[in-house]
Specification:
Elements lengths: L2 H12 L7 E7 H9 L2 H4 L4 E8 L1 H4 L2 H13 L2 E6 L17 H6 L4 E4 L2 H10 L4 E8 L1 H12 L6 E7 L2 H10 L13 E5 H7 L5 H7 L3 E4 L3 H17 L4 E3 L11 H10 E8 L3 E10 L8 H4 L18 H5 L31 H7 L17
Parallel strand pairs: 1-2, 1-7, 3-4, 3-5, 5-6, 7-8, 8-9
Antiparallel strand pairs: 10-11
């Protein structure tokens, strides 16, 4: 990142004649983290609002998938491997029952945190006489290496419990939510699209935001220079009454994305309707193993542990779903900073380092807002 270039973009933004409030949703949890770490909210004009969006896979992972992973680990002689953030995500559970994979682990379940899909393969090869279940929650950025793992030859004893999601359908649902009123908006005026997802799927995947919904959209990377360039792009578009897609991460993101990664995903997985915690089922928003790899599907192997009840809600009092949908800021949650802290998370947004609540807390905002703010408190 060039600090001087970032300052130039910031100066250009602050020089713009912004009189009305412009709300910009940043879809990606990584963007929210970078924005806060760089202190960009404190440096932008007062009437430019940056709104966290649905780009935290841990936050929207359905609790029934987490519970299934817990039940498999507690009742079967298996190793369950999952990304570290997933261990602490709480679910609704009966009194005295474990509420997270971490708590199941304290009861004797063999649950191991990993950092990449290749580690799940390594575990399976190290324990050939034991089944290993890879519980994978993630967006396209994680789905692609998981697809490569499968396509390259998956060990017989490795099963997959997929909670893989596609990013753009959730944004499309947000944008479609007010279609009945042509004068309404989904709560934001412009969109910053995720750089890593776009590196896999291509920047063109976000063209629908401008063409179908007439909102400015820009793809951004994860340094201040790229983020500020994207913010400038969507603000100047808004001021000029323009709507187009602009790629502000061209060194990594190409219009068509990574064709090899896309081919691997298409080769190993089917697109299916999928549940998003607190939001509901979104059509064509998830991935499932295709029929060639169903022998490795943990949901089929352990169907007896699937909870048939209607699940997916956040814990009582938790506003994580509203935060994910950009309907309120983290510190406007009823539990933020009181019952819900990183040490005692009530909702999933306080667990992951891509969760908006955890990010805001990590950057010094430890108090709940007394009122519904037009703009977040500055850390």
């Amino acid at each position: 990142m060039s600090t001087s270039n970032a300052k130039q973009w910031l100066d250009k933004i602050n020089a713009l004649p912004v009189t009305d409030t412009i709300k910009v949703m940043n879809v990606c949890g990584g963007h929210e983290r970078a924005l806060n770490q760089a202190g960009l909210r404190t440096l932008l004009p007062e009437n430019i609002e940056l709104i966290p969006g649905p780009g935290c896979p841990v936050c929207i992972c359905p609790e029934e998938a987490i519970e299934l992973a817990m039940q498999i680990a507690l009742n079967e002689a298996v190793i369950v491997a999952t990304f570290g953030d997933m261990l602490r995500v709480p679910i609704n559970a009966a009194k005295n029952a474990p509420r997270s994979l971490e708590q199941a682990r304290t009861l004797g379940a063999d649950i191991r945190p990993i950092a990449s899909p290749i580690e799940a393969r390594t575990l399976a090869l190290q324990h050939p006489q034991q089944r290993v279940v890879f519980f994978m929650a993630g967006f396209e950025t994680t789905t692609a290496p998981t697809a490569a793992l499968i396509a390259e030859g998956i060990p017989d004893n490795l099963l997959l419990l997929l909670a893989a999601r596609r990013t753009w359908p959730a944004v499309a649902q947000l944008l479609d939510s007010d279609n009945g009123n042509p004068n309404s908006t989904p709560g934001f005026n412009a969109l910053i699209a995720p750089g890593h997802v776009s590196a896999v799927m291509g920047s063109d995947e976000w063209r629908f935001v401008a063409e179908q919904h007439q909102l400015p959209v820009a793809v951004a990377g994860f340094d201040a220079e790229s983020l500020l360039a994207a913010i400038y792009s969507v603000i100047i578009q808004t001021l000029n009454g323009e709507t187009r897609l602009e790629n502000c991460y061209p060194s990594i993101v190409k219009p068509a994305g990574n064709r090899t990664a896309q081919k691997l995903i298409n080769q190993t997985m089917d697109i299916v309707a999928s549940a998003w915690r607190g939001i509901g089922t979104i059509p064509a928003s998830g991935y499932a193993l295709n029929k060639s790899y169903r022998a490795h599907d943990a949901q089929i192997h352990f169907a007896q542990y699937a909870n048939k009840k209607n699940r997916g809600e956040m814990p009582p009092g938790c506003d994580c779903a509203q935060v994910v949908l950009g309907k309120c800021y983290p510190n406007q949650c009823r539990l933020y900073g009181t019952a819900c802290t990183p040490a005692t998370p009530i909702g999933p947004c306080m667990v992951s380092d891509e969760g908006a609540c955890r990010i805001w807390w990590a950057n010094g905002l430890h108090k709940q807002s007394a009122v519904k703010l037009e703009r977040p408190l500055q850390a």
